[in-house]
Amino acid sequence: MNGPARILAIASASLSLAIASSPAQPVASQPTGRSFHLTDKTLVAWVYLDDTAQRAGSALTLIDAQERFDALVFAEVHPQRWMAGSDFFRRTPRDQSAWQAETARPDELIQIAAVYRGSEVTLYRNGRPYAAYRIQGPQSFDDDAWVLLGLRYVGTGGEIGFLKGRLEEARVYDRALEAKAIAALKPNAPSDPAPLGQWTFEDGSLGDSMRNFPPGELRGRARIADGQLHLDGQTAYAVIRPPPRPQSMFFQGRGLGGQWDTWLYYHEGTYYLFILAGPGGKWNGISMARSRDGATWEDLGIVLRRAEGVKWLGTGSTWKSPRHDKDGKYFLNFSEWRGDRQTIFFAESSDLRHWKRLGNEFEFKQDDRWYKPKGRWDCIYTIPRPGGGLYAYWTADPKSGPGVGFGQSLDGVRWEALAPPAFVDGAPHGECGAVEKIGDKYYMMLGTRGAMVTLWAERPEGPFRPARKNFRLLAGQTYFSRFFPTPRALLVNHHSISREGVLFAPLKQAVVDGEGTLRLKWWAGNEALKRHPLRAALDAPPATQGQTPPVRMFADGFDLSHGLVLEGTVELPAAGDAQPPGLFIQTAPDAGMAIRVLANAVTEIGKVKGDGSAFAATDRVDRQFSLTGRARFRLLLKRSLLEFYLDDHLMQCWSLPQGPTGRIGLLGGLSTGAGEVAAWAAEPPR
To answer: Into which CATH architecture does domain 34-240 fall?
Structure first.
């Protein structure tokens, strides 16, 4: 689905979907699971180049979760030159004109090696020095790094840098080899010292001969034959992925090229997370993660991929078959653009983990009695239908007036469109996130103009009208909230947009007050984020004339890469207070962002100087609930993404314009009644 205005152009990108299908591979012996930390290292590959005119492919790459990489790259900066490739050329010189041009024939085996020793990098070709230079500093890699064979990079930018040729062997050493040792290396022969990882392909597999890495996966048209990895320079590569580390607070799948909308399904104590994924907005598949507590997530990777001939992929949701007691099935939907028309398709599963696409006979098309034949047709969200079966709402373009799609199904996969639900009282047009019955009303979360707003109706078919209070349910650097029913609470999920890309945000609880106003609140399951207590002592105040400094910093900085939970209490100020209480998040030695709490539980965020002066608000939020006296606050902060809660109400989700330093302080001093403060890390230190 489309997102905030600054990313609306993504919606026009060509997207598609297909069943995930990895070529069958022999299974290598299981790895030992050896941990490592590489700073000094050596990368070695033996390769046949099909074409010396090709550009920017890699024989061997080490890449981490932050997309920092070192690689054996051919001809990215200068034609026909090997180079030690790196992220943004941080460890790669631009002047390579004096280096030897590669003239090898397609049947000529080349050994290329890069040795990283402190701030020195040395390249070797066929055992002889090829280039040497100094760098500002080395890049370290831990045992969660990926190994790519035949590809330079994979990440939020997609798959970049395919090599065309055949890889005879690849090795990673956990030390800087000497020139004599490099010259002595032979493919399919032991070495002293032994490599950390070695891929020979001799047994037809992507197994590591050293058994320190797990078996790899072939991608695209990659194949193994005659003891070699064959690479076509267009789609083919291999990836060796150690088991992913669980992620807490904000979740981002690795190797997807990017992600967008999310939805969930709960079954027998497990939370299943589905993610629309693909590089640079070109959503080409659906990825999954799962969790036992709804707070820490295990990355499962892509479960459905784009199909040939499909131009555009859209999001969906997951539901249980109305006949589950007989067929044991679950269904999910997704949309595809074929030519100039978007329609909806389905997949099924019996375990919520493995998905099989259903045939074109289940394609759900626009009913042109009520809907534009080539209008939006995307993202079914289901609720129980009185009398059996399901009702559903989806994003659509009715022929007259604003609205969404509405229909029904008895079996969950054969759908009948009905007349669109009525919209009244100035309700906007937009993208339907979800509809749920809460109490005696139906609540709709609708995406419009980069925000999620709330509509309500007394009947499934409407009329839906804007909520009187808290109409803008989510705005700013967030989008596409969905309801997520669980046995104990009705939850809401959405994604957040940061400098690090798009991430799945912590779950919230949907709560309707006595006036019928829908709000998002702290979900008790997020207490699981408070895993590792941290010291949260404030600096001693300076000896002044009894005045409290405007910013009081915590004595210790926080490692925000693991996710921080910070809790305390605050005294709500009187209207017009010149120095309202709040939090200071440092982004530079003399500057930061301030979250200020005003009278009547209004919250604002903005840039501020390091001493708390010159505040300039960039966003202001009024959730329109009554609150006086002391209130509990919660701050969730991971890298540049944060969430702020007041009295357990979600006030706002924000993305910091600059990366935080880890230093945090209290605004207004102790006279504001900030009270006791406690802090936790959401993930263990590494």
So the answer is: Sandwich (2.60)
What number is the average pLDDT over the span 618-624? 94
**Entry field: residues in the chain:** 686
Q: Where in the chain is the domain with CATH 2.60.120.200?
A: 34-240, 530-681
pLDDT in tens, 329-363: 999 999 998 888 899 999 999 999 999 999 999 99
Q: How many CB atoms lie within 10 A of CB 15?
A: 24
pLDDT above 60: residue 29: no
Contacts of 308 (CB under 8 A, 6+ apart): 18
Q: Locate tokens 């009702």: which residue?
A: 391
| pLDDT at residue number 6 | 31
As given in the structure block, the two tokens for residue 8 are 């609306």
Q: Specify whether the CB–CB gap between 275 and 313 falls below 8 A.
A: no
Q: Cβ contacts of residue 14 below 8 Å, gap of 6+?
A: 282, 311, 312, 337
Please report, for residues 230, 394, 610, the alpha-carbon distance to residue 73 in angstroms, rounded to integers and kept in the order given: 17, 46, 44
The three-state secondary structure class of 648 is coil
**Domain 314-526, architecture per CATH:** 5 Propeller (2.115)
Q: Which two tokens stand for residue 313?
A: 């992929």
- Average model confidence (pLDDT) across the chain: 90
Residue 14 pLDDT greater than 60, yes or no: no
- Which amino acid appears at position 503 of this protein? L
- 626 CB burial (10 A radius; 0-12, 13-18, 19+): exposed
CATH 2.115.10.20 domain locations along the chain = 314-526
Instruction: Please check whether residue 154 is in contact with residue 222, taking contact to mean a CB–CB distance below 8 angstroms.
Output: no
Helix H, strand E, coil C: the string for 213-230 is CCCCEEECCCEEECCEEE
For 187-225, write each residue's pLDDT tens digit: 999 999 999 999 999 999 999 999 999 999 999 999 999
Determine the pLDDT at residue 520.
97
- Contact call for residues 498 and 639 (beta carbons, < 8 A): yes
CB 65 within 8 A of CB 254: yes
Cα separation, 266 vs 486, whole angstroms? 6
End-to-end CA gap in the chain:
36
Question: Looking up tokens 């390091």, which residue turns up?
Answer: 610
* Contact residues for 361 (Cβ-Cβ < 8 A; gap 6+): none
CATH architecture type of domain 530-681 = Sandwich (2.60)
Of 48-62, 233-247, 394-408, 574-588, least confident by mean pLDDT is 574-588
Q: Do the Cβ atoms of 231 and 167 come closer than 8 Å?
A: yes
Residue-level pLDDT at 338:
85
How confident is the model at residue 5, as a pLDDT?
33
Q: Is the pTM of this model over 0.90?
A: no
